[in-house]
Amino acid sequence: MAYDNNNVFAKILRGELPCIKVYEDEHTLAFMDIMPQIDGHTLVIPKEPAETLLDISDEAAAAVIKTTKRIAAAVDKAMQGPGVVLFQLNGAGAGQTVPHLHFHVIPTSLAELRQPHAMVQGDPEVLKANAEKIIGALNSL
Ligand code: 5GP
């Protein structure tokens, strides 16, 4: 299916919608999930317009995995959860709700991942405070 240029993450990348950013480089962006499943829930996206992992170039896939690794380490250090769960959905049939490739980075365990995702809006002040913690951890990796 053709990439939808009007999806929310495309708008965030163009600066048309705000996000609470924790990291950005030439190829990737990481920001707080607006409806976190757990405190510290962070998203990592490529700048390349790709709906799923099945559509992205190898180069952009490598860049997004590299950033995801770094963000996972920072989230683990900052939030001190039991560990870090990564998940990434490909296609509406799999449950993907935003059609721009993204990795979820969540400081939890599979057993604790009870709340369904994209359900409860996070308190912006709490999201910002968690972003600050993660940025601090990134800077000390
Ligand atoms: P998916 O269901 O596609 O795997 O996950 C999409 C994620 O994007 C959800 O966890 C949802 O909370 C998050 N999300 C949806 N809209 C926005 C938004 O406008 N800003 C941010 N930061 N996250 C969003």
TrEMBL record:
Motif position, Histidine triad motif: 100-104
Pfam families in the record: HIT
Domain HIT: 8-115
GO molecular function, one term: catalytic activity
InterPro entries with a match to the protein in the record: HINT, Histidine_triad_HIT, HIT-like, HIT-like_sf
Source organism, top-level taxon: Bacteria
Catalytic residues as annotated in Swiss-Prot or TrEMBL: H102 (tele-amp-histidine intermediate)
CDD domains (alphabetical): HINT_subgroup
GO biological process: nucleotide metabolic process
Record protein name field: HIT family protein
Source organism: Salinispirillum sp. LH 10-3-1
